[in-house]
Design brief:
By secondary structure, the protein is α/β, with parallel strands linked by helices. It contains 9 helices and 9 strands. Strands 1, 2, 3, 4, 5, 6, 7, 8 and 9 form a 9-stranded mixed beta sheet that branches. Helix 8 links the parallel strand 8 and strand 9. Helix 1 runs antiparallel to helix 7 and helix 6 crosses helix 7.
Length: 283
């Protein structure tokens, strides 16, 4: 495990904002040990949370209480990314390894079937897993999903290049400040993101091809950031409607890609909770 003392201090500070009763669980898998932050009634339906790249599972502090009112929230530090999960054993090389890791993780947690909520990179993993094991996915929620329905804006990739090539904490923080301007994105979560980018130089996120979203059969909610710099939200919405006609698609008009999930959490929580607790309709 890499990461600076400053990173782990910031990480623990965000965990300190989770509701009382949150448990820390380490789950062994063939790919390494996965850290899970668990909150909510133990017998409630499971809800797996998959963060955006570099955000860690601690980032859901503003959502855990609302989501945990009716679900057992299981927020993961994605294996291979920053956080307290430790990669060991089999290497994570492709999408098939990611889905096998999640199979083992759910088995280790004793979860047969779960809802999955993912942001950005975590949304891509969530879609990939829902296509791999639809029988294990109750409902699917995607927050400004990247590389699921459309590609990145070229300008976004150009702006991101300096922080990918030379990711100092100050440079990354300045970048994410620009990308979240005009929102109430939590400053401590932005600092953790910056420390993750600079403190885990050897992290390698597993990426793969854009999934065949037209094959999704599970109930789906897509929440888009109306000011997303990562992609064109109108294009993503149109393609999502075309690929998954049964999907519910909402736009959070004033938010940006990196503002989720900490900015305007009440609105996000309401939309997600309404979807998760609504009576099931036809898929």
């Amino acid at each position: 495990m890499s990461g600076s003392p400053e990173f782990f201090a910031a990480y623990e500070a965000l965990l300190g904002r989770w509701p009382a009763g949150t448990a820390e669980i380490d789950v062994p898998t063939p790919y390494g040990t996965t850290r899970v932050h668990a909150y909510g009634p133990a017998q409630a339906p499971a809800l797996l949370l998959l963060h955006g790249g570099g955000a860690t599972g601690a980032v859901w502090f503003a959502n855990a209480a609302a989501l945990g009112a009716h679900h057992r929230v299981l927020a993961v530090d994605i294996l291979g990314d920053a956080g307290r999960s430790v990669q060991a054993g089999r290497p994570l090389r492709g999408a098939a390894d990611l889905t096998a890791w999640l199979d083992a993780l759910l088995d280790g947690l004793g979860v047969r079937r779960a809802g999955i909520l993912g942001h950005s990179y975590g949304a891509w993993i969530a879609v990939t897993y829902a296509l791999h094991a639809p029988q294990r996915v109750d409902r699917l929620v995607l927050l400004d999903p990247t590389r699921c329905f459309a590609g990145h804006r070229p300008g976004f990739l150009l702006r991101s290049l300096p922080v990918l090539v030379r990711p100092t904490a100050d440079r990354v923080l300045a970048y994410v400040d620009r990308e979240t301007a005009g929102t109430d994105t939590d400053p401590e979560s932005k600092r953790l993101f910056a420390l993750a980018a600079s403190g885990f130089p050897h992290r390698r996120l597993v990426v793969g091809r854009r999934p065949d979203t037209a094959a999704l059969t599970v109930p789906l909610l897509v929440l888009l950031a109306g000011r997303s710099g990562a992609h064109d939200p109108q294009k993503v919405a149109a393609r999502a409607r075309g690929a998954v006609p049964h999907a519910r698609i909402e736009t959070l008009a004033h938010l940006t890609h990196y503002a989720l999930p900490t900015a305007a959490p009440a609105q996000t929580n309401r939309l997600v909770c309404d979807f998760l607790t609504a009576a099931a309709g036809p898929a």
